[in-house]
Amino acid sequence: MGSATVPRVGSPRRDPEARGCTVAEATRVLIAADKFKGSLTAAQVAGHVAAGLRRAAPTADVTALPVADGGDGTVDAALAAGFARREAAVTGPLGEPVVAAYALRAADGTAVVEMAGASGLRLLPGGRSAPLTATTYGTGELLRAALDAGARTIVLGVGGSATTDGGSGMLAALGGRLADGAGRPVGPGGAALAALAEADLSGLDERLARTRVVLASDVDNPLTGPRGAAAVYGPQKGASPADVEVLDAALAHYAAVLDGGERAAEPGAGAAGGTGYGALVGLGAAFRPGIEVMLDVLGFETALEGAGLVITGEGSLDEQTLHGKAPVGVARAARARGVPVVAVCGRLALDAAALAGAGIERAYALTDLEPDPRRCMAEAGPLLERLAERVARDHLG
User: Fold this and answer.
1) What InterPro entries does the annotation carry (predicted)?
2) Which of 256, 291, 326 is where one domain is finished?
3) What is the number of structural domains in the chain?
């Protein structure tokens, strides 16, 4: 997909054989961290880490490459890597108008579309949940906007959704016809899919056939069942146990009508309330772990060249981190090139063995400096700079 221009902070790298050259002067550091959710964007994390490194090792050569795994912050990471910001007026998860952004690299026609920006939990009016009726229609409109802008490759990041409609709204916005027994369009949301009698996807935007769509997700759940979209993620979106039963049954029926349920068990089909399934079946999407896709799009391999240390991280390093989150993806890619990796985080819930298994030599947590979680959130930037000074002292000598 090409590489991006990567911003650098600090002094140029010097020859390690030069007289008086310190370890810090000889080491190039790549900061490739995700956001600290609720406190700092990925770009802000990189900025604070760079500031702390500069104080402790003024001559270190620092490169910042904010990353994301397909959820909230994915578009921001692309923008930080040089993509252009584009906006479109779309339909929010409850039908209200919202303005959503996507990122476009015109040089090769790559667009990064973040589902959370059109159909995300953070867009629910007043924070109220709507597990049965929230729609992905706006995500389909955002995809159409990217096609209108000339996108030939679309990375669809599907984390942070408010929906469990199997991507049905998305398909309808792109020209699919989903009708009940009376020939009327089914209503919005997952529960309405129980009334689905006919699905005709022949009217989908013809440009999709000429467009590479990549489904970027950090989960590989199937569409239905005990590991499915409704059972695992429905409660996070406000679904009661009874709602989960309704949604799971409706999604199973939806899949039976769309393709006989043939692709419902595929990895990623259950991502974002089944939007993964809609993308696989209707858009011809290819599923890939979100962080792998984004490292490719952002030009991680190029940024890694010549690096002697990688600093990754996210708000909480915990069991979820080990299942496809950004820090593990970064560590895996860096370690494959023989580059050591350390992590920064707000909260650390992994022991040394788990970190080592993920390819992370050591992790530094804000709670090591400030045990009060609320103060950690409020003062994340300055604390992160102090943490980065520790990293510099320990690893840049």
Assistant:
1) Glyc_kinase_flavodox-like_fold, Glycerate_kinase, Glycerate_kinase_RE-like, Glycerate_kinase_sf
2) 291
3) 2
Residue 1 CA to residue 3 CA, distance in Å, equals 7
Contact 254/193 with Cβ under 8 angstroms? Answer: yes
Distance (Å, rounded) from C-alpha 125 to C-alpha 94? 8
Range of the domain at 23: 8-65+315-395
Closest CA to 364 of 326, 323, 320, 327: 327
Distance (Å, rounded) from C-alpha 259 to C-alpha 32?
40
Roughly how many angstroms between the first and final C-alpha of the chain, as a whole number?
37
Task: Give residue 7's pLDDT.
Answer: 53
Identify whether 304 is part of a domain: no
Domain end (from 291, 306, 340): 291
Show Cβ contacts of residue 297 under 8 Å, excluding neighbours closer than 6 positions: 1, 4, 78, 81, 110, 112, 155
Task: Please tell me the pTM assigned to this model.
Answer: 0.87
Angle between helix 326-336 and 290-298 (nearest 10): 60
pLDDT category of residue 25 using cuts at 50, 70 and 90: very low
